[in-house]
């Protein structure tokens, strides 16, 4: 299946996604087998010329097929500025991992939170809201203003969250 190149429109009847999988595998006689698969994010609304209803079904099916495996660790990646209640991946992960032994929440973009929203995100990290057995970690990319901070500066910035 051909996927349109960046900047090109989706041809009628064509998909933005492929059922093909790119895996990174590590194995050997003295190593445990490890595969890393990055699946696309779930979406609920087709966009004309970009995403189709068939794309939505394909992505959802691919995500569900990977997270159901008992050997799979699900990293549920969720943007911090988005309402946790709208994140379908948590429901799918709970279906696939009812004991919560293989699901870790990864919160991204905490720097984009509106003032006052920090406490809601920290409720997730502290485990007082939408608790996951493995918990949540937070990932923040450095912005332009953070070009080359020292590790001490980075830790100080993070401590502001843990008042």
Explain how this protein is built.
- There is one protein chain.
- The strands form 2 sheets. The protein has a 3-stranded parallel beta sheet, with helices on one face. Strands 1-2 form a two-stranded antiparallel ribbon.
- The mean pLDDT is 81.
- The chain has 163 residues and is an alpha/beta fold.
- The chain is globular, with a radius of gyration of 19 Å.
- The chain is 26% helix and 17% strand.
- Residues 1-150 form the Dynamin GTPase domain.
- GO terms for molecular function: GTP binding; GTPase activity; microtubule binding.
- This is Dynamin GTPase domain-containing protein.
- Residues 1-23 are annotated as: Disordered.
- It comes from Letharia columbiana.
Topology:
Elements: E1 24-28, E2 31-36, H1 53-67, E3 74-79, H2 88-96, E4 103-108, H3 118-126, E5 136-139, H4 151-159
Parallel strand pairs: 3-4, 4-5
Antiparallel strand pairs: 1-2
Domain Dynamin GTPase: 1-150
Region (Disordered): 1-23
Pfam families: Dynamin_N
């Amino acid at each position: 299946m051909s996927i349109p190149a960046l900047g090109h429109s989706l041809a009628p009847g064509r998909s933005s996604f492929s059922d093909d999988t790119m895996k990174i595998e590590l194995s050997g006689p003295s190593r445990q087998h490890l595969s890393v698969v990055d699946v696309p994010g779930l979406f609920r609304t087709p966009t004309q010329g970009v995403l189709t209803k068939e794309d939505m079904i394909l992505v959802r099916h691919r995500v569900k097929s990977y997270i159901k495996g008992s050997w799979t660790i699900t990293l549920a990646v969720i943007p911090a500025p988005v309402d946790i209640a709208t994140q379908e991946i948590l429901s799918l992960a709970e279906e696939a991992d009812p004991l919560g032994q293989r699901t870790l929440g990864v919160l991204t973009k905490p720097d984009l939170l509106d003032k006052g929203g920090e406490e809601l995100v920290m409720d997730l990290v502290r485990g007082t809201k939408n608790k996951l057995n493995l918990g949540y970690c937070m990932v923040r990319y450095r912005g332009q203003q953070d070009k080359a901070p020292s590790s001490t500066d980075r830790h100080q910035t993070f401590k502001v969250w843990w008042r």
